[in-house]
Amino acid sequence: EAQVTQNPRYLITVTGKKLTVTCSQNMNHEYMSWYRQDPGLGLRQIYYSMNVEVTDKGDVPEGYKVSRKEKRNFPLILESPSPNQTSLYFCASSSSETVNNEQFFGPGTRLTVL
Amino acid sequence: QKEVEQNSGPLSVPEGAIASLNCTYSDRGSQSFFWYRQYSGKSPELIMFIYSNGDKEDGRFTAQLNKASQYVSLLIRDSQPSDSATYLCAVNVVRGSTLGRLYFGRGTQLTVWP
Prior knowledge:
- The structure holds two protein chains of two kinds.
- By secondary structure, chain A is mostly beta strands.
- Helix content of chain A is about 0%, strand content about 50%.
- In chain A, the strands form two sheets. In chain A, strands 2, 4, 5, 6, 9, 10 and 11 form a seven-stranded mixed sheet that branches. In chain A, strands 1-3-8-7 form a four-stranded antiparallel sheet, with no helix packed on it.
- The mean pLDDT of chain A is about 95.
- In chain B, strands 2, 4, 5, 9, 10 and 11 form a six-stranded mixed sheet that branches. In chain B, strands 1-3-8-7-6 form a five-stranded antiparallel sheet, with no helix packed on it.
- The interface of A and B includes residues 30, 44 and 45 of A.
């Protein structure tokens, strides 16, 4: 089944404790992206990657890191989480062959930073 | 700069009625346009995309695009209670990169009451 998976789905942590949210897709997509969704603010892009070893900042990159060492994986790293990073996070992927950048979303990770 | 604006809602319609969702965008370089449906706590699910002026129909859904007015809409005919969700408008803007970037509106919450 073609899908984007994220782990963990739910995470409660404390300020300053480094964490990684994994994202993996099995569709051989070149493009992957991370979004956060907050009430009243909609989906905002954190980072995106056009292909292996190619990443770029989105609209809200502060406090986040990413890497793209393999085509299928695009982990999101929070080196020192803070309460304002409490949010619902989505990973998405798309293929350069679609032209229109139709993105497929993972199930989401709900993060709470205390 | 706000890229994508949606009528904030919430929108409430009776079962069987037509629900009309609207979206405007600011970047004339926008090339493709998407409507995603998102149930509470779930990931966005693509329901329609359009990239040419005019109407595009898929079952009970019709997307309408007017590039001159920078306006895209979604009509849902014969609305059902199962259509109750938040609808996200997304616009793909190509600026140099091959695939472009998706910008999302904040969403319109639709409730269809029986």
